[in-house]
Amino acid sequence: MKTWMKLFAVVSLAFALTGCGYNTFQSLDEEAKASWSEVLNQYQRRADLVPNLVETVKGYAAHEQEVLTDVANARSKVGSMQVTPELLNDPEAFAKFQAAQGQLTGALSRLMAVAENYPNLKADQGFRDLQAQLEGTENRVTVARNRYIETIKNYNIAIRSFPNNLTAMMFGYNTKPTFTVENEKAISSAPKVEFGDKK
Question: What is the CATH number of the domain that holds 37?
Fold first, then answer.
């Protein structure tokens, strides 16, 4: 009789956990980890392109030392960060990660702008190949980030919805940070457009 009661209790608990969102949290958490891995994979791909890109630009524009140094420093900062699965649950660490990636994005944009001033560099096949790879990687980063954002949105909705939120509190599930728009203040103000000198 005791065996049947224990079995009934286990089955009842399993049904209760299924109906309260526990399994949903497990599934969404795994999706978040997989999406995050893809983001990291694409960011690493981008970081791996940087040394070759810097060396190619340096061959034509060695005196653009400040821009080259900024790119190298930004890549170094990204490379020195400890990226662990716990980062997904730490908003402060996540913000630092995002800031470092944003710094590298900005430095690479400045490097590409400098390249516009050097026709021989723009004509170099190696540089054009690296530029195409970088553009493709930036597109992959965008796609991976968008998938991650969507996954985290679904996870956070599940965490905050009733009655799942009760299960989340009981098992210690919290909302996860997601990517934000970089430099929100700058994009919220309209750009100034000037059309030459007024006569």
Answer: 1.20.1440.20
